[in-house]
Design a protein that fits this description.
Elements (H helix, E strand, L loop, with lengths): L2 E6 L3 H16 L3 E6 L9 H9 L4 E5 L2 H13 L2 H4 L1 E4 L4 H7 L7 E4 L8 H14 L5 H20 L4 H8 L3 E4 L2 E4 L7 E7 L26 E13 L2 E13 L1
Parallel strand pairs: 1-2, 1-3, 3-4, 4-5, 8-9
Antiparallel strand pairs: 5-8, 6-7, 9-10
Helix pairs in contact: 7-8
């Protein structure tokens, strides 16, 4: 993709995200062919969809919260835009997939926790979560579990729940969580890139390399370095199968 349109909600997060995306795309010597900022709570995206189509963009970057993203994706799908212009989402979330279905096919984006991360710890967590709740964990479920598991380990190691002693113990600690290794002092944590694709079959095989230890990554002074495990989704709506890959990047 060479040409991009950026659509962000008209408040700090949306505008800041579009500004950051524009900086990164320009640095990669690609073109931003348009930007726009719909108000939060927009119900009719027809005018924005028309602008995106007229821009001849290859991809559209979306920084839209929850329901706004759902409404946009459904309407863009109805207008046939998603077949022409690939949706690139700030957050590709399980709840959006459930709400939107086929309208999200082809979308790519990021997820801090996809439930299909192929590690033994995550498989065990997902199994127990599904048995308890009858649904798969979303991004917030996974993050909450990981944070509380880490806190419990730190309290146990400190031998107390005294706040100052817990803080001291947490410094330089490490969690081998569902997503892989997370190191506290270096502010390093696994992230995920994702693409949703339709047309696969039920029962497709899952494969993934071992998680990359963030301590093995090159580091620049002042950088927070994040190993990214990518996520390829194949399958029919509601029954996706997943395949993963890995790369790494640094963010300042």
């Amino acid at each position: 993709m060479k040409r991009f349109f950026a659509l962000g909600s008209d408040y700090a997060w949306g505008r800041d995200s579009v500004a950051s995306f524009t900086t990164q795309i320009t640095a990669a010597k690609k073109d931003i062919v348009g930007t726009d900022y719909p108000p939060v709570g927009t119900k009719d995206f027809a005018s924005y969809i028309a602008k995106i189509r007229q821009s001849k963009a290859d991809g559209v970057y979306l920084a839209l919260p929850g329901q706004d993203a759902t409404i946009y994706l459904k309407q863009a799908h109805q207008f046939g835009l998603n077949r022409e212009v690939k949706p690139i989402m700030e957050i590709l979330e399980l709840e959006n997939m459930k709400a939107v279905g086929d309208a999200m096919v082809g979308a790519i984006g990021s997820s801090r926790y996809p439930f299909t991360v192929d590690t033994p710890r995550n498989k065990d967590f997902v199994k127990r979560f599904y048995e308890l709740h009858g649904v798969y964990p979303d991004m917030f479920d996974g993050e909450t579990y990981e944070g509380l598991e880490w806190l419990a380990q730190v309290i146990q190691k400190a031998g107390t729940d005294d706040v100052e002693k817990v803080i001291d113990t947490w410094e330089d600690s490490e969690l081998r969580g569902p997503r892989g290794p997370v190191l506290h002092a270096q502010v390093r944590s696994p992230g995920r890139a994702a693409r949703l694709r339709g047309g696969g079959g039920e029962g497709s095989q899952v494969s993934a390399p071992h998680s990359q230890d963030p301590r093995d990554l090159p580091r620049r002074e002042g950088d927070a370095e994040v190993p990214h495990r990518g996520l390829l989704v194949a399958g029919r709506p509601g029954r996706p199968a997943w395949r993963t890959w890995e790369s790494s990047s640094s963010t300042r």
